Amino acid sequence: MTLQPKHLAVLAGLALAQGAAAQQISKPFSSLAGNSVTGTILCRNSSSVPMTADAEQSLPLRLVATLNCGQQVSLLSAGESYTVNVRTAEGKSGYVAWMNVSKDAIAQSQKAVPTAAVHNGVARWIAGTPGSERLYTEGSLVESLTVNGVTVQVSLQDTGWKLLANIAVANRSLEGVSVIPSHVSLNDHGLTKKSLAYQDPNKLRGAASHQILWTTSNAAPSSSGYLPASGRDFASTPNTQNYLAEHQATVQLVSEHQAEFNPHSQMHEVALKEAVVLPNQQISGSAWFQRKGDRDNMILSVPVGGVIYEFPLSFNEK
Questions:
Q1: Secondary element (H or E) of residue 10
Q2: 8 Å CB contact between 1 and 258
Q3: What span, in angstroms and rounded, lies between the C-alpha atoms of 174 and 148?
Q4: Chain segment 113-154, per-residue pLDDT in tens
Q5: DSSP H helical segments within 86-208, as ranges?
Q6: How far apart are CA 58 and CA 38, in angstroms?
Q7: Nearest residue to 317 (alpha-carbon basis) of 288, 291, 290, 295
Q8: What is the pLDDT confidence band of residue 293, given thresholds at 50, 70 and 90?
Q9: Is the peptide bond before 60 cis (omega within 30 degrees of 0)?
C-alpha cells in the first residue's frame, strides 16, 4: 500500500525527540471537560492579578492585562504547573498563577462525571458500575475507568510474540499524577497464577525478527469484570471520550509499515513514557509484557497517582 502524505507526516512525527513529545500532551480544558470551564480571579494580599504573555512569568513580566479581584475568566489550558492559560470576556488571553484562580468551577464540573469506588487504594473496572465504561476503536475494545477526575483507558492485544498494552491517562483533577511504565503489571489469575514480566522497550531492540506491533487478537473483558445477572446491563452510551483512539491509530499505522521503517525505533517512540500528567493534560503509549499463561483471566494494573486502576481482560471470551 502506498503511504499517503498524512501517513508520512504521522510516521515522521514519531521520530521527534521525547522532549518535543512531552510538549504535545497538554490539552485544552474544552477537550477534556466537553464544554467551557470558567474560573474567578482571587486576589491574595493584592488589589489585582497580573496576566502575562508567557507561562513561566519570567522577569521582567510581559503584562497582557491586569485582572481585577472577582473577575470571571475562561480557563483554556494548563501551561507549566505554576500557571494556567485564561481568556477574559474582552477576548484577551494570557497566563495567571494557579493560586490566583478559583477552582470551584472545575470541581463543580467534575461532580457530573461518574467516579469508580476505591477500596484499599484499588479501583476495579466492573461493567455497569459508575466510572467503568466500554469503548471501541476500529473493533478493538477499550476499557475506561475514572476516579475523581483521572481517567485511565487500556486495550490489550496479542502480537504473537508479546502482549501489547495500550494505555492512556487523562487528568481532569486539580493535582498532577505520576505515570511510571515499569510499575504497570499484567497478571494471569487463571490456573497458572503468575505475573507476566514487563518488557523494557530498550531491551527489545535486539529481537529484530519478531513482530512488535502486529495484532493477532484483541482482549475482551474477562468474566470477573461483569456484574452478576442481577446487575445492570452495560449498554449505556459512554460519557467519556476515547483518549486512546489517536494512539491506537498511530500504532496500527506503524505496524502496517514496519518493513519501510526501523521497527525498533518506532517501537521506542510509541512506548509509554514516564511522566507527571498535570491537570488538564493527557498522555498515552504502549507497554509490552511476556506472553505466557492461559490468557483467560488476566488483570492489567496501572498505578496512577495514589490509585491502582485494575482492568480484567481475557483472550478467551466465552
A1: helix 5-14
A2: no
A3: 10
A4: 689 999 999 999 998 899 999 888 766 789 999 998 899 999
A5: 104-111
A6: 25
A7: 295
A8: low
A9: yes
Partner residues linked to 146 by β-bridges? 151
C-alpha cell, 77: 489550558
What are the φ/ψ torsions at residue 108 (nearest 5 degrees)? Answer: -65, -40
Strands 307-314, 122-124: parallel, antiparallel or unpaired by DSSP? Answer: parallel
The structural domains of the chain, ordered by start, are 29-111 (2.30.30.40), 113-314 (no CATH)
Global pTM reads 0.67
Residue 58, pLDDT > 90, answer: no
| Count helices and strands in the chain by DSSP H and E runs | 6, 22
Average pLDDT over residues 89-95: 90
CA distance 140 to 138: 6
β strands within 24-110, DSSP E: 37-40, 48-52, 63-68, 72-78, 83-87, 93-97
Residue 33 predicted with pLDDT over 70: no
